[in-house]
Structures are given as structure tokens and as C-alpha cells.
Amino acid sequence: MINIAGYKEILAEANKHDATLVAVSKKQPNERIQAFYALGQRDFGENYVQELVPKHDVLPQDIRWHFIGHLQSNKVKEIATFVHLIHSVDRFSLLKEIDKQGAKIGRTIDVLIQIYVGSEDTKFGLDEKELLEVLEYYSAQKLNHVRICGFMGMASNTSDEEKIVKEFHQMKDVFEMMKTQFFFGKEHFNTLSIGMSGDYQLALANGSNMLRVGSSIFGARSY
Ligand SMILES: *Cc1c(COP(=O)(O)O)cnc(C)c1O
Question: Is 117 exposed, middle or buried (0-12, 13-18, 19+ CB in 10 A)?
Fold first, then answer.
């Protein structure tokens, strides 16, 4: 069962903060996506290429598809023609592959770099040192068909709100720092994708302008 009241509440809060709500539809049937589409929702997020491609084929063409999962380089070409924003770039070789596929079809593909600030062992995304390396490579090379528009991050999976807030602060700080250092005057570098079902309010209060919310609006995922 989808949660329409919950969706409307989150959407209202997102709008209050000028944030985009990406409805994370991984492992959800097309009928549920259609239901949110009918309410006006256009931004949807998916984690798996093999799931996204068939959904894109049959669902309305004005949906903006966000790719938020781990992306294998050899799968980029399958989504390059239509993906709206790739949130999960976590290595320079992937950035180069996206640029290559974009060049082939004459399209500039928008991406976010996935960053990591926590202290847990399960690490997804780039820490500050790795991020600096990637941005230095990016600035030094002419990649005309991939455009970095900001960062995506996930807070630690914990009920400790203070820890979550601290991590969101760190992400916002890194965002502002890198904006000054590498994207000065670049209007398109403007997106900080943080906040999921469990922490979207904390994220909005701490600098998020793009939420990725799944289970709390779609209901449980079917695996
Ligand atoms: C699944 C997923 C989400 C949505 O998580 P919910 O807890 O269901 O809101 C957000 N971001 C990423 C990267 C995800 O993989």
C-alpha cells in the first residue's frame, strides 16, 4: 500500500526548503509508480540498471529517472540516453566512462559524486582525500559530456540523531568547500542529495536540497 498522506507531508516539507523529492521506486511495481505519477510526481530513483531500463521503456516518458545505486561501468551505456541524474559516481573511471558514453550520443550527462563522511567500516562513496583527487582530475581534463552538479551522501544507519546531524553538517561543509575551490561561479553545481525515509527532516534542516525517499511513501519493497 502506498502512503499518500505521508507523501504529501514530505512533499510539503521538501517544497518549503526548495528541495526536490526523489521517490525511490526500486523493487516497486509499476502500478505504484503510476499512482505517484498521477499525483504529479516526476522524479523517481532506481538502484539497478536491469530494473530501470524496462521501467523507462513502459512508463511515461516525462519521468525524470535518477540513478542512485552502485553503477558498473559496463552498464552506463544502457541508461546514458535517458537518465536525468546519476547520484552515485564513486570513482574517476566511472566519470570518464559516463563522459565517453555521453560523447557518443552527443549528450551531457549530469551526475553527483557520492561522498562519505562517517567513521563506519561499511564505506560507500569517497572520503575527502579521494574526493579531492577526483575533482583535481576532473578539473585537469576536458570532460565535456559529464557535468558534476553536486554531491550525494548517506548518514550512518543509527538512531543517534546527534551523529546524523554531525554527518550532514560535514557533508554540507565539504559541499561548500568544494564549490568554492572547484566550481566557483558555476550555477549548475547546486545539488546536495541527502536525506532518506528515516532522516529527511534532519537533512532538510541541515542543507539538503534533494531527498531520496522510498519505503515511507511506497511501502515495503518486494524482493
Ligand atoms: C533505497 C535507497 C534510498 C531510499 O531509502 P528509504 O529508506 O527506503 O527511504 C535512498 N538512497 C539510496 C542510495 C538508496 O539505495
Answer: buried
Residue 219 region by backbone torsions, left for phi larger than 0, else alpha for psi between -120 and 50, else beta: left
Contacts of 41 (CB under 8 A, 6+ apart): 7, 21, 23
Express each pLDDT in 2-44 by its tens digit.
Answer: 999 999 999 999 999 999 999 999 999 999 999 999 999 999 9
Q: Does the C-beta of 68 come closer than 6 Å to ligand 1? A: yes
212 lines ligand 1 (CB under 6 A): yes
d(CA 220, CA 2): 9
Distance between Cα 91 and ligand 1 center (Å): 20
* pTM (predicted TM-score): 0.97
